[in-house]
Design brief:
D-amino Acid Aminotransferase, Chain A, domain 2, alpha+beta, 8 helices, D-amino Acid Aminotransferase, Chain A, domain 1, 2 domains, binds 4'-deoxy-4'-aminopyridoxal-5'-phosphate
């Protein structure tokens, strides 16, 4: 079913509207000039994982684009919780989005109203579940993450996703599930909706997020690995080094922890550390499920 004609409600500027009525005008600044920021959050068993961190990042992304969301983080949290409850899902994806409205048309939009909407839908698996456990196939993208002097590259901003859609489409046309993007220096950066980790000699290696999204899942995985006593090395990684890594996985709110079997000409195994971190992540986002296991 298309996304503009589903059932339920969407939280829109402080009130609930029927799902198919949550529309914006074609002369919206956010549509023409990409003045939008968003979040992707997941609820497990009715609880949104790290909701406060996500909604704080939403406010920070807006600040990086030069606007202030007219709701406090507490109000956004409450709106997310209420939208989830109204939709009636236990496990769901939560998408807040803020953008500049339609009072002025042109590059400048100083007077435009800032809008905020929150939609909740079911999104069980980001990648094909049949492929996912075997490891997904990833291509190397031709498009690169921009220099932080070119764009506010740490914001979760709609405009930056042009690069992701171009890269993902090119990869899918070649039969891959996703694309790994390098940054403007040629260093390994991130996938189109997830961060990347590599395993070598029992240690985790991941690029320093200095020009791409510092994922909340990424930080969760780093904590989980360190709790296991695994060394985590954040550093610049060049694509030539991919030949020397044994395992690879990507992680993000939607993707969770997903093993990677290949990136372009390089091959990886779905090894013990990757599997352990997949389990740790599942147990962290589902504390209730973890408690059940512990009680059994
Ligand atoms: N990079 C990109 C480009 C993303 O879209 C996402 C998903 N939001 C991530 C990384 C991972 O971020 P998070 O773990 O906060 O969802």
């Amino acid at each position: 079913q298309p996304f503009d004609s589903r059932d339920g409600v969407i939280w829109f500027d402080g009130a609930f509207v029927p799902w198919s009525d949550a529309k914006v005008h074609v002369l919206t600044h956010g549509l023409h000039y990409a003045s939008g920021v968003f979040e992707g959050e997941r609820a497990y068993g009715g609880v949104i994982f790290k909701m406060r961190e996500h909604n704080q990042r939403l406010i920070e992304s807006a600040r990086l684009l030069g606007f202030e969301i007219p709701f406090t983080v507490e109000q956004i949290d409450r709106a997310c919780v209420e939208t989830l409850a109204r939709q009636g899902f236990e496990d769901a994806y939560v998408r807040p989005i803020a953008w500049r409205g339609s009072e002025m048309m042109g590059v400048a939009a100083q007077q435009n109203t800032i809008h905020l909407a929150i939609a909740v839908w079911q999104w069980p698996s980001y990648f094909d579940p049949a492929q996912r456990l075997k490891g997904i196939r990833v291509d190397l993208a031709e498009w690169r993450r921009p220099d932080p002097r070119t764009a506010p590259s740490r914001a979760k901003a709609t405009g930056l996703y042009m690069i992701c859609t171009l890269s993902k489409h090119a990869a899918e046309q070649k039969g891959y599930a996703d694309a790994l993007m390098l940054d403007w220096r040629g260093q390994v950066a991130e996938c189109t909706g997830a961060n990347v980790f590599f395993v070598k000699d029992g240690a985790l290696h991941t690029p320093t997020p200095d020009c791409f999204l510092d994922g909340i899942t990424r930080r969760t995985v780093i904590d989980l690995a360190r709790k296991r006593g695994v060394e985590v090395i954040e550093r610049a990684i060049m694509p030539e080094e991919l030949a020397g890594f044994e395992q690879c996985f990507i992680c993000g709110t939607a993707a969770e922890v997903t093993p990677v079997s290949e990136i372009a000409q390089w091959r990886f195994t779905v090894g013990d550390l990757t599997k352990a971190l997949m389990e740790d992540y599942e147990a962290t986002v589902r504390p209730a499920a973890k408690a059940e296991v512990a009680a059994a």
